[in-house]
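Field log, afternoon session.

UNIT: design team B
ACTIVITY: writing a sequence onto a fixed backbone
BACKBONE:
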């Protein structure tokens, strides 16, 4: 399992499932019937729009004779990848912003998305050119 997992971790498990079904010439309808799930759910998973639940993962793994926990592990790695990508964009480059600019709060605790208007106002009024450029870059990158 872990050799295969290392090759594909970070992809949505539905994409793996889609490939596996094609390789084995198993229809999504057949899988849905065997695991007791709606066809629409299987289709949504194979398109990456839904995630595997523990029960569906177990039933699918049993039907496809995959190692128990493989699909759920793949799901977890996919969610970690998404979380890392979101976290990467959740705050500006703080090395370019002086802490003194936010003297009344802990700069590491600012919710940069929720407090967007206040941050922009403060940096516009009190920030230097580097800080203004960083805030502009940050907010432009998340929209």
């Amino acid at each position: 399992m872990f050799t295969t997992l290392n090759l594909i971790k970070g992809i949505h498990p539905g994409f793996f499932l889609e490939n596996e079904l094609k390789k084995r010439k198993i229809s999504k309808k057949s899988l849905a019937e065997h695991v007791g799930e709606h066809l629409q759910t299987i289709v949504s998973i194979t398109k990456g729009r839904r995630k595997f639940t523990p029960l569906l993962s177990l039933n699918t793994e049993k039907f496809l004779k995959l190692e128990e926990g493989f699909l759920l592990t793949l799901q977890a790695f996919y969610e970690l990848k998404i979380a890392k990508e979101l976290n990467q964009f959740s705050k500006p480059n703080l090395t370019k912003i002086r802490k003194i600019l936010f003297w009344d709060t802990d700069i590491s605790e600012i919710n940069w998305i929720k407090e967007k208007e206040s941050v922009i106002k403060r940096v516009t009024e009190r920030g230097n050119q580097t800080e203004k450029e960083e805030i502009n870059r940050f907010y432009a990158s998340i929209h």
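LOG NOTE: The domain at 2-88 is CATH 1.10.260.40 (434 Repressor (Amino-terminal Domain)).
NEXT ACTIVITY: expression trials, pending approval
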